[in-house]
Design brief:
The structure is a single chain. This protein is α/β, with parallel strands linked by helices. It has one domain: TIM Barrel (Alpha-Beta Barrel), CATH 3.20.20. It has 18 helices and 13 strands. An eight-stranded parallel beta barrel has the order 1-2-3-4-5-7-10-11, surrounded by five helices. A three-stranded mixed sheet has the order 6-8-9, with helices on one face. It is globular, with a radius of gyration of 22 Å. The N terminus is likely disordered. The structure holds 5-hydroxymethyl-3,4-dihydroxypiperidine.
Length: 511
Amino acid sequence: MSALPYDAGAPVAPEQLGPAHVELSISARTLARRLPPDFVLGAATAAYQVEGATREDGRTESVWDAWLADGGRTVDGSDARRAVEHYRMMPQDVGLMRGLGLDAYRFSVAWPRIIPEPGGTVNRKGLDFYDRLLDELGAAGIEAMATLFHWDTPQYLQEAGGWMERDTAYRFADYAEQVGRVLGDRVRWWCTVNEPATVAGNGYAADVHAPAGNHGVAALRSVHHLLLGHGLAARALRAVGVAGGIGLSNVHSPVEPRDPGSILDRTAADLVDTTYNRIFADPVLLGDYPTAVHAVAGVAGLKIEDGDLAVVSAPLDFYGLNYYMPTLVAAGPGRDGPLPASMVLPTGGSVDGSAPSPLHVVEWPHAAKTAYGWPVVPGHLGVMLGRMRERYPQLPPVYITEGGASFEEVPLDGQVQDANRAAYLYEHLLAALDAVGPGGPAEGLELRGYFIWTLMDNWEWAAGYRQKFGLVHVDRDTFARTPKASYHWLRKVLQHRLEYAAAGTGAAAGA
Ligand code: IFM
C-alpha cells in the first residue's frame, strides 16, 4: 500500500495539495460568501461502497455479497470485497475530511457487521469500528450523520424474503435499537433508510440490483416494509434516547412532461412522479399513500395494517433529500423505454424502446451530461425544493443528503482536474440557496445543509468502479488517495467562509 501524500492526522498544508485549485478560486469566493455560517457542508459514503473487509471481525454476507457470488452483473466484472479499503484506512480518510475542512460526514452502518446471524445477537467487534470512526470524527471536529440502511440487507433475512416480508421491518428496528444504544451519544443525525425507491425499484421490481427481485407491481410490498422499517427504527432510536435528530433519505427527481400542452404527456409525467417521488414521500410527510397505491394494493398483495401509517408518518427532525437530476417523460413507447436509458445502460442492462409501454423517458435537451449520462440541471434542484415546500406543509428542515456527479477522469501528472465537478457543486449549491431565499420557489423551506456524494471514488453498485463521483481519487491497485481539483476548490470555499464569518462579511446565519 502506498502512503498517503501527507500525514493523515494533521491539517493539510496547501503545498501538500498541489496546484489544482488556483483557477477555481474566484467561484470559491462567490460561493463562500453565499453559504450561511451554520449551513452544514458535508460528504457522504455508504458502507458497502467503501469499506471492503467483507469477511472481517465477524461480518456475514449481505444481499450484495450473495448477488455477486451468484454471478451478479457489474459492468466491469468487479466486486466490493476490498472496495476502497475504508475499513482499514478509516483514520486516513478522516484525515482527508479534516484537511478539507468538512463540517460533517455521512456514513452508513453495515447491518451484517452488527447483527451477523439470525437471532439478533450483537457483534461487538462490528460496532467497534463505528465507535472508533465516531471518536476520530469527534477529534477532527466533524459532525456525524449515520445511515442505518444503505442497501446491505443481511443475506439471512433475504433468504426469508427480505423486504418483501413484514418481519424484516421489525428486525431492522431491533438492529437500530442496538446501534442507537452504543453510538447514540455521538451521532448528530440519524438517517434510518437511504433511497427506499432504489431498493424497491432496482432491487425488488426491476432486477438491476441485489437481491435481483423481479416482482413487478408486487414490489410495492417492499416499499411499505421499507417505510415501516423506517418508522419502527425511528421509534426504537427515540426509545433508547439517542441525542441526535432523526430522519430518512429519499431520492427525488422532479418530473416534467415533454409537451406541457399534451394531456397524455402530463398524465405520463404524473404517473412517474407518483411512482418515483410521491409513493415514498407522501406516507412519511402526509400519512398516506397516493390513491394509485391503494388501487393496486390487492393485486400487489400489499397489506397496510392499522396503525402502520401512523408509525411511518411520526414527525421527523429533518427530511433528507437526495437530488441528482430531473426526468422528462412522454406518453407511449419510445426509444429510451420506461426507465431512463442513462440509468439502465451503465449498469449493464439493455433498453428496448420497442416494447409496449404507456410512457417513456426522453433525453433532457441542451444539458451537459455526467459519465452516467445523467443531465446536469441545477435549476431543477430549486424546482424540486419548491414542489416539496408546496406539497408538504409539515415538511421539517431539509438536508440535501446526497448530490454529486460522476465524470470520466484519468489522473494526469498525479492530478485529477475535475473542474466540472467543482462547477456542478457550485451551481447546485447556489441553485438550492437561491430557491429557499427571498422570492425563490421554495422560500421559507428550512434548508440546513448539503452532503456531497461522495468523499472518494468507490464501488458504484452494478456500475462497478467505472462511475467516479469522488472528491478524492483512489488508485485501484494501491488504494492511495489523491485529492482532486474539486477537493482543493472546496477546501478554499470552506476557508473563505470562515474568513468572511470572522470579518462579518459572510451570509447571514440561518438558511
Ligand atoms: O452511489 C449511489 C448511492 O449509493 C445512492 N445514491 C446515488 C449514488 C450515485 O448513484
